[in-house]
């Protein structure tokens, strides 16, 4: 999010080309920007907590409002208002039959010119082709996550404003070790009939 606002990717390319900041577009400060969180669950609430020190204002949209304690001052708005009034949009909803392609050409057209779009959910929630076209036209400033990983849309690869990374959030020695320990402990608890450390909500609801 911060990298997209501050033109991180183009600046790195410019630096490596020996141009330093020559020809580089100006970035934006995070202060007083409006962050629209699409899906105010555990991840959405964590994002809100982390961006607050930067002076970012948060709004959110869910299927239904969460409690005032969980919202912690974030305003609940309609999906239309979130799309049209946000400077930054963070997608944090599960991929289901109902959410696949949820953000397409129609929704992107409602967004502000130059909006920063960050998808921490599954790539297929956003119509990747529509997103790539919007990035090339300048309507969207920066994006990540891919619909058909490891294949990445060629238009995204060629656009230097697309801040693209392979999934690095868990790609550390420490995190992978914790994930292995967590999985083994869950397996032990299943065998012994004990309460799990974590469950998959979709599986629990289907039982």
UniProtKB/TrEMBL annotation:
Domain D-isomer specific 2-hydroxyacid dehydrogenase NAD-binding: 1-169
Matching InterPro entries: D-isomer_2-hydroxyacid_DH, D-isomer_DH_CS, D-isomer_DH_CS1, D-isomer_DH_NAD-bd, NAD(P)-bd_dom_sf
Organism: Aspergillus cristatus (Chinese Fuzhuan brick tea-fermentation fungus)
Transcription regulation among keywords: no
Alphabetic keyword roster: Oxidoreductase
Top-level taxon of origin: Eukaryota
Pfam families for the chain: 2-Hacid_dh_C
GO molecular function: glyoxylate reductase (NADPH) activity; hydroxypyruvate reductase [NAD(P)H] activity; NAD binding
Gene3D superfamilies listed in its UniProt record: NAD(P)-binding Rossmann-like Domain
Record's GO cellular component terms: cytosol
Protein name stated in the entry: D-isomer specific 2-hydroxyacid dehydrogenase NAD-binding domain-containing protein
